[in-house]
Specification:
alpha+beta, five-stranded mixed sheet, 3 domains, about 10% strand, about 60% helix, two-stranded antiparallel sheet, Heat Shock Protein 90, about 400 residues
Amino acid sequence: MRKRPLWLWVGLRMTLLAVGAVITITVCMYLYFWIRDYLVLQSMRPADRAEMLAGLVDVPRNESRLWQLMQTYYDIHDFLPGPGNSIDWLVLYGFVIVVIPFTLIVGLYLSRPLSRQFRQIAEGARRVAEGDLGVRVRQHPRQPKEMQRLCTDFNKLVERLALYESEVAESSSNLAHELRTPLNAALGRVQGMLDEVFPMTPEQLRLVQSQLYNLNTLVGDLHLLSLAHAGQLQLHISLFSPARLVEERLAWFAPQFEAAGMQLHTVLADPLLMEADRARVGQLLNILIENALKYAPEGRELRVALREAKGCVQIEFLDRGHAVDQKDLGNMFVRFWRAEQSRARVSGGGGLGLSIAQAICDAHGGCISAQRRDGGGMALLVTLPLVTPVNL
């Protein structure tokens, strides 16, 4: 069924009410005059009534006789110039007084569906304000499209709030665990040295330093994500070659590739230039490279491609490691999420890498996506504009 806009939905009902009121009054006045003429005819003598009916068949030829009969049986005020018989006007006023309340009742009845929908939305909003995020507003197919869109947007808003609340609760639990792990390790090592369980040597201190470094890195990552979600992640825009940046980052990780036995294949659009935050884009590349080294070394292969497409830079990382399940692809960029199979917690890390990668892409007006590859493995595709919008 075609959805009508709100102005048409309301306008049609108002027009129908007005037209209905006029037609009702007109029909009532017609019935009034018909009944009055019928009563006058019934009050005539049979001969005069027959003569009257016969004269009405041919009014011009029987005009004089009809005037005589009308003067005899009709009120003279019905034929005077001006508004006419005051009784007729009183009858008209009476019909108007009767029809107006009826029209108001019908108008209120026709407006009930719209009022009911607003009331449901208001009730839903009140329940959401009280913390009930399971409420949904039911749509009515005959409602105007603006109202249906409002119901759809309201339901989507509540769904997003419920998802956000769930993510906050889960992130808080994961955050407490991630912070507690290195902190407890460092405190345990220090307590062991104080209790002379461990010798107080530079090696032991380096172990403590390593845990504190992990803790500091996690806090820094969380701070970056907080700035990105608040829209306050500052970018230092400069002109650079993304191909050169990719080569630089891959060369930096060359020892790790060699240790993992991974073969590296690159296809880079060398002459391409872009305006972006070189440091942040470099951080993004580091995350994707580390992700491949951490979760896909058994694939023994990593392909990195860089190309231009519709005013954007596309950077693609293709590995042959174990792929994430199709149902989990949407969770890969959620904070602290890890797959339970090959890309698991035992691989290390805080579970924030791809979340930070997505935040950097969003800050540049770009995007990042993941999909499974035919034959096994994952494909991560980063799309960044050649010129970062200044309003971001």
